[in-house]
Write a structure and sequence with these properties.
Elements (H helix, E strand, L loop, with lengths): L10 E6 L12 H15 L3 E7 L7 E4 L4 E6 L1 H4 L10 H26 L3 E7 L4 H13 L6 E7 L10 H7 L1 E4 L2 H8 L6 E2 L14 H12 L4 E6 L8 H13 L4 E6 L5 H11 L4 E4 L6 H10 L5 E4 L5 H10 L2 E4 L8 H8 L4 E3 L14 E2 L5 H13 L1 H15 L4 H18 L21 H5 L29
Parallel strand pairs: 1-2, 1-5, 2-4, 5-6, 6-7, 7-8, 9-10, 9-13, 10-12, 11-12, 13-14, 14-15
Antiparallel strand pairs: 3-4
Helix pairs in contact: 3-4, 7-11, 8-9, 8-13, 12-14
Length: 482
């Protein structure tokens, strides 16, 4: 199969996502992921548009990277009435996004790009964008632009799967996901997505000054205390209850526990924190707007002594990295984790990450992180106490973590992404990236040309991508172009 890498002059990217780079737009790993993809593509010379539910207080249109990256903040007029974040007022935003984004892309992005000889590549994230992508395919087809467009839709998790029209979505685009764990889950739906792993920016591998990390640990837990940190949505899948009960056991076993919890606005938060109080832990909520790790540290200290600090403020990547390193353990334990970006970021910072055993393939060999085999409290407590009693093992994990994480930098992942885009073009019978001298007709049997050029008149939906059984690839072709 031909897998020529698309070059910047051949492509214009559009990324669709509810979450995005603004603090308002981030509720989990998706906002970080899509922002990093956009930045990395633009830094490699690709014209890139990111359409997301942006902060109502920032410009609706923003240009970065010498014009190569454009932010399109959507639904701002709705977000002004819903200040709590991207998923506050979600249904209204979903309706507006689905209705207005496809025609905007067709008229303002696709038509000019294709007229200038570039192929449109759309990468859509999560269930909220599924119907938008279906409508976009229809509208591109109606405008005569679908033959120059490659559409992909990515699943980061299974949320909202019940709201997706899978038959139509699978028809109009190439499905992708972030891990083989997710691929096998989606096979239960009769789907066979392509795997494109998650990644991290290479600057997350920069070492953290040990003095800064030590200062955080000493001020919060002292020299002998146990500082734990967990960053995740308040969702039962993230095993918050397990983490809280482990903190109770560790305290009962004599440890001075300081547990920093950075969750979201989900309803499960009250269940987690009330359960902690019922078990005798002192819980303090920290509400502030820190602009640096020093501000965050002072805000936590100002809340007073506690076992658990619920951090009710946004934390920038640079802020998180200090706390990942300062913590004795970063609890990235989950019973269902499609990929596990927090664990990977903690490893990059030199933290000791304890993950689950589902989509976190980077932690399975135990070199740069510890992977749990269950969601049981006893296993988590055992692992933590073992590492406390064997500090040389904990130090070895800290040293190996950044080396393992380096395999997952976005510069490496983007190469995989570009290869899979070419593969998606093959599946959708679009060949804009062929090497010189290769014609698209070289890839099909001559007898099938008429079937490609003249679609059945009774077909109502856009005839892209053409089903494989209509235009089979020549089995005799085995050349791979890099």
């Amino acid at each position: 199969m031909f897998t020529a890498r698309p070059m910047p002059y051949q492509v214009e990217f559009v990324l669709l996502s509810f979450e995005g780079p603004d603090p308002y737009s981030q509720a989990g790993g998706l906002g970080v992921r899509i922002a990093n993809i956009a930045q990395c593509l633009a830094s490699q010379g690709y014209q890139t548009h990111l359409i997301f539910i942006g902060s109502p207080d920032l410009p609706g249109h923003e240009v970065q990277c010498d014009g190569r990256l454009q932010y399109h903040r959507w639904c701002q007029w709705i977000s002004r009435y819903h200040p709590l974040g991207v998923y506050d007022g979600e249904e209204g935003k979903l309706f507006d996004f689905t209705r207005s984004v496809p025609p905007y892309i067709v008229d303002q992005i696709a038509a000019p790009a294709i007229a200038q000889g570039r192929c449109l590549v759309v990468l859509a994230e999560e269930w909220q964008t599924a119907e938008s992508l279906i409508r976009l395919s229809d509208q591109l087809y109606a405008a005569g632009l679908r033959a120059n467009s490659i559409l992909l839709w990515n699943a980061n998790n299974t949320k909202g799967f019940d709201r997706i029209d899978w038959k139509r979505l699978d028809f109009v685009c190439t499905l992708t996901t972030v891990s083989r764990y997710m691929k096998y889950i989606m096979r239960d739906f009769g789907l066979d997505p392509v795997v494109i792993p998650n990644g991290i920016p290479s600057d997350l591998l920069q070492p953290i000054p040990q003095a800064e990390a030590s200062r955080v640990h000493e001020r919060l837990a002292g020299e002998d205390g146990l500082l734990m940190f967990k960053v995740a949505r308040y969702d039962p899948d993230k095993c918050w209850i397990t983490a809280v009960e482990a903190a109770v056991c560790l305290k009962q076993n004599g440890a001075k526990v300081r547990f920093l919890c950075r969750g979201g606005i989900e309803a499960h938060a009250s269940q987690v924190l009330n359960h902690a109080r019922e078990l005798g832990l002192v819980v303090k909520e920290v509400s502030d707007h820190p602009e640096s790790w020093v501000d965050a540290l002072e805000a936590i200290q100002a809340a007073g002594a506690a076992d658990i600090y619920n951090l009710c403020f946004s934390m920038s990547p640079s802020m998180l990295r200090i706390f990942y390193t300062a913590a004795d353990f970063v609890l990235a334990n989950s019973k269902h984790e499609p990929f596990g970006l927090v664990g990977l970021e903690a490893m990059a910072a030199g933290g000791v990450a304890i993950t689950g055993c589902t989509g976190e393939t980077y932690s399975m060999d135990g070199t740069g992180a510890i992977a749990l085999d269950s969601e049981s409290v006893s296993e988590l407590v055992h692992v933590i106490e073992f590492l406390i009693n064997h500090p040389q093992r904990s130090q070895a994990i800290r040293q190996a973590g950044p080396k393992v994480a380096a395999r997952y930098t976005w510069n490496n992942i983007i190469e995989i992404l570009l290869e899979k885009i070419s593969l998606a073009g093959e599946h959708q019978r679009i060949h804009p990236f062929l090497p010189p001298g290769i014609s698209p007709t070289d890839l099909i049997w001559p007898a099938d040309l008429r079937g490609i050029a003249q679609f059945p008149m009774e077909l109502v939906l856009p005839a892209w991508p053409v089903a494989p059984e209509i235009t089979p690839l020549k089995t005799s072709i085995s050349t791979t172009a890099g």
